Structures
1.
Amino acid sequence: MICIANAVIDCMKILVLNCGSSSIKYQLIDMDKDEALARGLIAKIGEHGSYIRHRAGEKEVVKEIPIENHARGLEVMMEYLLHPEFGVLKDPSEVSAVGHRVVHGGSVFVKPTLITEEVIKKLKEYSYLAPLHNPHNVAGIEAAKKIFPNVPQVAVFDTAFHQTLPEKAYMYPLPYEFYEKYGVRKYGFHGISCDYVSRRASEFLGKSRDDLKMIICHLGNGVTVCAVDGGKSIDTSMGLTPLGGLMMGTRCGDLDPGVIFYLAKNADLNLDQINEILNNKSGLLGVSGVSNDVREILEEAKKGNKRCILAIEMFTYRVKKWIGAYAAALGGLDAVVFTAGIGENSPKIRSMICAGLEFMGVELDEERNEKAVGIEAEISKPSSRVKVLVIPTNEEKLIAVETMKITKNLEGS
């Protein structure tokens, strides 16, 4: 049991929601028993072929259902949480609190926050900083408030963990007035995941997080590399928006800003078109021309597809460079930790990233690496000075714990 959940409230069941543009991930967690009673995915919201995948214990159901918006998605979720065969609740009143993942909290929301109408208003104001995420987070909050009008709801922010970045790391070399007037700075993302994984990694290693220098590689469709020193984020790859940093599934990551002006002039593209290309048509998808899914790209690379080979080489090269940079920023390194879809499940990607890092004390054990798929594991050699770990992320667990803390404070007030 992860020690971040030491406190227990009798019979507290927390519903955790992660609302994306066309999906809702959810978990219902019994904090007393420290277990997920049910979990699921509402997918393709507002699209043809929308469906729910719901799992409770050993029972799982996948059903195609018309789901036109997030409000209807939450209604469908509740139907299955209350279902006579697949449900785990007898009444909605059993839900003690609702925790929401919110991507961008700007500079105002630096810790988990009880959701009020004023908070919702502020979140809407920050939507311009994460236009692909925050509006859908807010839609989920508003829909949940209608289903659970008298239940406390808490926002847990992806940006909050990175509020410990020093000024030299989060500032951009732009006129200072842009920071003062418009909040233009690095905020970072995947903070919930990086926080959880760094905690679990320290427990796995049997050491205090305060004594460790770690680099967390959250490698999924979105990618973050984060330097964690003594349990605090000191630098992270994403920036003002989730577009910055590493090459990702469909996002370009960092590039020469002059490219934008060059495309506007020579490809006759406006800013909205360029924004669409950089966010949704670049990265692994743009280079490979095949997919944003690493599994599909690796399969095509095996067949000799040169663009797929190039996409994988670019992706792993960039992660490797970031590890080197953050080892320098940390002034030493105790562990490299892989997490998220690619990081947890692709031995090939991990191997390519670690190759060549022997000079800094990274010695990968290829046999251990091949066996570590979707499980917690050490994949470095016993002689490796820098430990290499695979730690599956569990953002929902950390959201539930933070939601519980807020609820406890309410009860005690």
2.
Amino acid sequence: MKVMTLNCGSSSVKYALFDMPDRIKFCHGIVDRVTVGGSFIEHFKLDNEKYIHYDECPNHDTAIRLIIDFLADMERGVIKDLSEIRAVGHRVVHGGEKFTKPVTIDDEVIKKIEECSVLAPLHNPANLAGIRAVMRLMPNITQAAIFDTAFFTTMPPHVFIYGLPYEWYEKYQIRKYGFHGTSHRYVSRRATVLLGKKPHEVNLITLHIGNGVSITAVKGGVAYDHSMGFTPLEGAVMGTRCGDIDPGIPLYVMGKERLGCQEMEDILNRKSGLLGISGKYIDRREILQAMKAGDERAKLSFEVECYRIRKYIGAYIAGMGGVDAIVFTGGVGENSALHRLKVCDCLEFLGIKLDHKKNKQAVGGQSEMEISSPLSPVKVFVIPTDEELVIAEDTFALL
């Protein structure tokens, strides 16, 4: 059975096509720069044959139409007819307390996802755009929603409740939720296998470091704590998001600058983080290059990011009472040896010791690799994430 997965961002659409239940990935790719101009598709077939094609995609409909055309193309495609695809699984970032497991999409589900959009304004609207595009382009196909937040339903109340009036939780469901759930779920499963233990025997800290950054404490095989919170704005410093700050700061600046709520929300989500500190950079590769050229603010943004992640590691080890392994994943976690080195700096007293040669070798995101020293009581892994496989498995299970 062929299952297609879609991960729609505001300016990109990631996709893959699987044969289930054999978990064979026929192809995968991304349509980038959707809605912003200069759009192109990168398409990879099973044999890693790569195609790049430039085609303007002013909206998600045209991006998904481009993906469909590639899937069924005689030369570049992997299917003869669109009817071979039985279902489409979508990553949806925020399900609130409404969704604790994957669901088949219908009008009621769409309405509830819309209600959660205020909690993830950078993500849920784009996820919905992909769902609606498939409805128009493939009207008879089954669609499933796989929620990032669902992985974190195992967090106990003393972890997810904030120090705020409790009636806010009762009335508005204000609590910690958690994000990047498909990624954390996948790499925690793989780390458990690499450790040769059963899930309930394992404590892990999984670090998803990309444009968005999130850290999860996995205790006894299930999510126990997570750096992001009510929205994906809490936690570590990210590409454009501020992460943890004194909540009095926005109130103070709103008064000084006479800013409205929407203006401040835009600053905290889109103009802060590494971009805010460096003044010009989001991409970590550009930050590292600028550091080499002597850019002090680029260096500062790098040091702030790594220090904040390192603090979370220490806090989660204390919270769980110990850890068996640290896992790096995500675009930066999988590819930047310097970030991994800086994050693990000064953690030897906690039993975390890197093998520097292995750390340098672990680039490219192609394979799982242990990068800790043989003398390290705590293992350190680089595990390329496979969110698409998790989405495909959950979609197949629903069918």
